Amino acid sequence: MQRKFITNLGFLLLVNILIKPFWLFGIDRAVQNATGAEAYGHYYALFNFSLLLNILLDLGITNFNNRNISMNRQLLQKHMSGIIVLRLLLAIFYTCISMIAAYFIGYRADEISMLLILLMNQVLISGILYLRSNLAGLHMFKMDSIVSVLDRATMILICGWLLWGRDGDSPFQIEWFVWAQTASYVITLVVILIILSSKTSFYKIVWNKAFSLMILRKSYPFAILILLMTFYNRVDSVMLERMLDNGDRFAGIYAQAYRLMEAGNMVAYLFAGLLLPMFSSMIKKKQDTGPLLKTSSTLMLTPAIGASIVFLFCSVEIMDALYKYNARESAQVGVFLMISFIGMCVSYNFGALLTANGSLGILNRMAAGAMLLNVLLNLVLIPKMQAKGAAIASMITQLIMAALQIWLSKRIFKLQTNTKLLVRMSLFTILSLLAAGFIHQLHIDSDFALAKVLVISFTLVVLALMTRAIHLGDIRAILQQKE
Fold first, then answer.
1. How many C-alpha atoms does 110 have within 13 Å on its Cβ side?
2. How far apart are alpha carbons 247 and 240 in whole angstroms?
3. pTM of this prediction?
4. CA 269 to CA 438: how far, in whole Å?
5. Rounded mean pLDDT, 195-214
């Protein structure tokens, strides 16, 4: 299973590295630079508001389906036909509840009009993720990898033309960006439906009340977990925009810093997407999950720690290179968000293991505590420290959640502390901090603004190999194993 994980992860990373970084730093960043911090911050706050209740679109069906199809592939046709109707009803429910919440929060008419499009986009995204869960459940990982970037590739083409290819002098409008997303999601949804139609027949779409209630009863623990996690991951920018007088600007500053963490999060999420069905299959077969957990943790945490250290010493250079406005303010925010990213990576690994095991009751209680802590911290820190306060709240919440999930995994699975691995990771972290600090003190003078970033990054890669935080020999041995 380790070999399968690494080979599929390698293909998944290759496909995503070719597309998503350019989307994030070429298109998404260019849109923010073209529209300005306030216009983009306004969109970003509305976008995150559309995410807060998007679990109502799914109610945990996607995660339940991923785990269930991995264990019982013969159920694909039966479940898919019934679930599609259920999801359409949930889409209507989600839209109505979100609009009611927007009214009580006090959004204006122009904000409501954009929010409606963003809600529609969330419906499309949720449909795509559900259909992709069937591909993952069938272990069609390479096909899933390809369709995972199809929406971004389509958006690159559309937004690239709108930004740089069209005739005329009219400035780029943030609404164009939103509609480009809609078109891309529709195309991706149709493509996945065509792929799945070759694997199963689901043309007879029927409403089955008993089946729908059964699915909801089994999936609601997943729904609660995702709802709670979404709140403590996404409520920051909404609270910034609503709580502060110049909230749009501070939400834009936060978005600039968050984009770097989101880039790492895209890769980490790919790990989790592979790990959940693999852990589910291994647990059902009573196989030892320890080796796979060690492999995934090492491959995810080492780059996360390295990236956080690079940003700690090069935040100003990176932000100055990326943005026209508010780069220095975003650099301060980004330091705390990159540290919180380490906690997120831990949660992706151990959270996937616990979810596959069905340990959702205690995970939900932990997530509820994390959500409450995050909101309270934001209420205290945002008025005093603005965007930096929201980032500190996120960092504290993510690190505490990560520690709790490690503790719970050790308790349930009787995991032994891997002292050798812990020493390697600690040595890599300490040496990396010392080396990066030394290089930072050299004040590298170069016409190339990111020279220091490249020097520190290369040094950290060497240290990762020297300390065996990433051990190429182990990876090579795994790849040489038979499936």
1. 5
2. 6
3. 0.74
4. 33
5. 67
